[in-house]
Amino acid sequence: ELGRFNLILLKKLTSFGSYKPVWEGVLFCLAFSALFLTLSVFFHILSGNNRYHVSLLAAALSLIFPTYAEQFYFRFQSFEVAFALFLLCLSNLILLMHIKKHSVILLSFSIILAALSFGTYQSFMNVAVTFYFGMFIALLLSENKKCIITGALSCTAHFGLSLFLYKIISLIFCESGSYIEDKIKWSEYGFSTCFHFVIHYIKVTLFASKYAYTFAFLICIVISFSAIVYLFFKDIKKIKLKVGLYNLLKMKYGMVNIKCHF
């Protein structure tokens, strides 16, 4: 009833009837390696084919963040989580190819992969939105108006259709449940309580008051806004970057504002 149909499918295909720690570890290493390489290629293309070592470093820093480390440490689903992240990275890499080549086949395949990722762990919907805003910032910097519009529409359609496909598959193969709906708390609690939840979450993520977070996020925000100020005075056209980074930060807390739950 949690709607994680792909998690169950992967368990059926790989567990051979019982949990085997060594086999699970081997599968995780393979999935994590594929995830790392795919994410590196995504960063490489997104950055305009810059040096490979920069993309490799960006992928490494992303995947060792404590939030992911906690998931990977949970051995009963570490492979499935890593594999689902790989599917999501591959989905967005193919989406990036679709934006450049305008291929319906690529878009359709990308949507299927994203839906399977959502069907493993619903929190990957938040990660997907992060990918969309990353691509949006890159398109803003390209200053190609046609490409910006096409990319924005493609990302919007991609998320909507992926979520729709996920819901359809969940209705067919899973018991009825309200896992996602139950995360929305605005109707359950008063405004002041919900507002307190949101502020508390912002403090937790910025000041790393829980083990799953570090000060890296706060440092990145300071560096980003410093870059915004520098670019604003250096080249007024780069103000587009300010809009993009603001949207990326807004996305970070957007799901919390909508759900009032974390």
Structural summary, described in words:
The protein is mainly α and 262 residues long. The chain has helices spanning 5-14, 21-46, 52-63, 66-73, 78-101, 104-118, 124-142, 145-173, 191-207, 216-234, 239-259. The longest helix has 29 residues, at 145-173. The protein is globular and about 60 Å long. The two termini are 20 Å apart.
Q: What average pLDDT do the residues reach?
A: 78
How would you characterize the largest beta sheet? none
**Would you report the number of β strands?**
0
Structural class category = mainly alpha
Compute the number of helices: 11
Strand fraction equals under 5%
Query: SSE string, helix = H, strand = E?
Result: HHHHHHHHHHH
Q: What is the CA-CA span between the terminal residues?
A: 20 Å
Query: What proportion of the residues is helical, as a percent range?
Result: over 70%
